[in-house]
Every structure is written in C-alpha cells, then in structure tokens.
Amino acid sequence: MRIMIDGRYLPDNARVNRDLLITLRNMAKVLNWGIRYDAQRELVLINSKDSSMPRLPADNHADERSEEENARLAGKVICLDPGHGGSDLGTLGPTGTMEKDNTLAIALLLKEKLEKSGATIVMTRDTDADVAYTDATANEELGARVEAANQADADLFISIHNDAFASNTASGTTTFHYGDKDSVNLANAVQRCLAEKLGTKNRGARFASFYVLRYTNMPSILIEVAFISNAVEEMLLSSVDGRDNAAESICEGILKYFKV
Ligand SMILES: [Zn+2]
C-alpha cells in the first residue's frame, strides 16, 4: 500500500502493512484526520487538515486520456541517455546498487510515458551495455551518445544520472544545462517538477560544461536525480516507486517546457 497525505504521495518507497494501517486509523481518530483506504489501488489517503474523507485521486490510465493528451508531443523526437552502462557501472550506493541500473530503469519508464504523449524516442542505450562498443573509453562513450542525438536530429537531449559525494549526507536533485536559453528553460521546468514530486532538496538548475551538453545540437540537460551515496536516496533511486516518480516528473517537466 502507498500513502498519500493531503493529495501528495509520500516521496520515498514507504509501504504500509496491515498493522501500520490500524495504527494510522487510530492516529487519525485522535488527531481528527480524515483517512480512507482504497483496497483496489492499495492506497492509504490521509487528510491532515480536517476529518472529512479524502477524495480519491483521478485515475490516469492511458485509455481514459483524451486524444489531445495522447498527441501532445506528436512530431517531437527526444533522445534519452541513461548514464553509464555495460563496463561502466557509474557510482555505487552504500548497499551496492549501481547508477547504470537506476539510470536505465528511469529512462525506460520515461520512454513509455513520453511515447504515450506521442513523442518519438531515441535511446542511446536500452540495455545494460556500453554505447560505443564494449570497454570503450569514457570519451568514446560520450562521443557516441552525442552522435546518437545529433544523427537523429532530436528536438531534446535528456541525460539521466545519479549524484554521489564522499560525504553520505549530501542529498538532493540537480539539473544541468549549458546556458543557452532553451536548455535553461527545459532545465528549470524539469528541475521544479522533480524536486516537488520526489520531495528531495532542490539544488537548482545549474550551468555545467559537460561534454554531452556542449556538443549536442539541441536543447539538452543532464539530470542528477538524487544522491546514490546517500542511503535514503539510494532507496529512492532503486525502488520501483522512486524510479516511476522520477520518470513521471521528468515527463511533466518536458510537457511544461513545450507548453502542451
Ligand atoms: Zn553519472
């Protein structure tokens, strides 16, 4: 079961079991909260402001979406770049989870969501593999990613990464751009959606001279979704819900950028 408080999902992968549900119901009684359990969706809804029953959130199944919604990104080509892969593991979390797995999982979820809005997606990789060739150097890898986006004449380039720092208390979400107006707008839109939905510290949209941002011909951003070196954020990055929330927010940010 998931928990939604005052219309917002809890950002981490907190799960409610039967015992906790009983506890929550007792708490709600004492604190005068509204609480409702939706068994079909395995969702606990809490209204902390008053004791009225919280309203169920609207379903967003694809078949209930309007045709207009399904075509919002029609004609747009978006290149998704899951950071690292294959022989390049990226950074590792405290429990051994790998950046290359988190970035691929988020990118594949994002691909699905963007395609539902009509976009054409080009992936620099869609399996756990190097992009250029097995055991390629870091520079060859970056070159191959840029080439994939430029050759596809993509409208956007989105590179997905996990942040890491020596201190395990560093946390939050950052989106990097190369300073051109469109990339800055895209970075701002995506960064806002991500920090809001994940509930992570908003480290802002920032300039960076990363190779993949410098040499791609289209508006491009590099997203550090959260810190894999931080135990709490490692859980977010490796959990099904955390990855889906990340993908959903990036998708929302892209829709906002295109104003559709
Ligand atoms: Zn990375």
Automatic annotation (TrEMBL):
It holds the Pfam family Amidase_3. Transmembrane segments: none annotated. Residues 146-255 form the MurNAc-LAA domain. It comes from the Bacteria. GO terms for molecular function: N-acetylmuramoyl-L-alanine amidase activity. Signal peptide: none annotated. One of its GO terms (cellular component) is outer membrane-bounded periplasmic space. One of its GO terms (biological process) is peptidoglycan catabolic process. This is N-acetylmuramoyl-L-alanine amidase CwlD. It comes from Sporomusa termitida.
